[in-house]
Every structure is written in C-alpha cells, then in structure tokens.
Specification:
Strand content: 5-15%
Oligomer: single chain
Strand order of the largest sheet: 1-2-3
Number of strands: 5
Structural class: alpha+beta
Shape: globular
Radius of gyration: 18 Å
Length: about 100
C-alpha cells in the first residue's frame, strides 16, 4: 500500500520538479559514470552514485545516519543537511577561524 496520499507523504508535501529532457549524450555519460563507480567502490564513489540515482545533494548525503536508511522498504529519509563554510584565509592550514 502506498504511503502517498493527496500529494503528501506521511503528512509532508511532496516536492515535484519539472521533468528534464535527457539527450542521448547525457544518458551515455551518466551510464559511464555509474558503471565506473559501481566497478570502483569507495566512499567517494558511493556519494557520487547516491547523488546521481537519488538527486540528493552532497550535504544531505554527508548528514545521513544509518537510522535514516530503511533497506527493507528501500527508502532513505532525508531530514537534515551539513554545510561546509569556506574561509579564504584558512586554506591549507589546520587553524580554525575565530
């Protein structure tokens, strides 16, 4: 039984994005990337695969906890994100900006 009712999932609105048109070159490039990351598993490549297959942003992927992942129902609950703050004066050092 679907949990989606009246455009909402568990009472939260579902965001729908306009359908993108994919040309054959774009599809081929995406397939090459997916094939590469599957054949060369690493934490970084898992992030790339999640981004491509789910549309999640990198901050959302970095914020995931094991309890956010429901393998039985094949659902990833995205409810937080992480931001990286860039300080130009802090590049290449271990010092934290005060």
């Amino acid at each position: 039984m679907s949990q989606i009712r009246h455009g909402k999932l568990h009472g939260r609105p579902i965001i729908r994005y306009p359908e993108q048109r994919w040309n054959d070159t774009r599809r081929e490039n995406i397939k090459k990337i997916v094939d590469y990351v599957i054949n060369n598993p690493s934490p970084r490549n898992l992030d790339i695969l999640l981004t491509i297959c789910t549309g999640m942003r990198i901050g959302e992927i970095c914020a995931l906890l094991w309890e956010d992942i429901d393998l039985d129902n094949r659902v990833i609950h995205v409810n937080k994100t992480i931001e990286r703050i860039y300080y130009p004066d802090n590049v290449g050092s271990d010092k934290k900006k005060q």
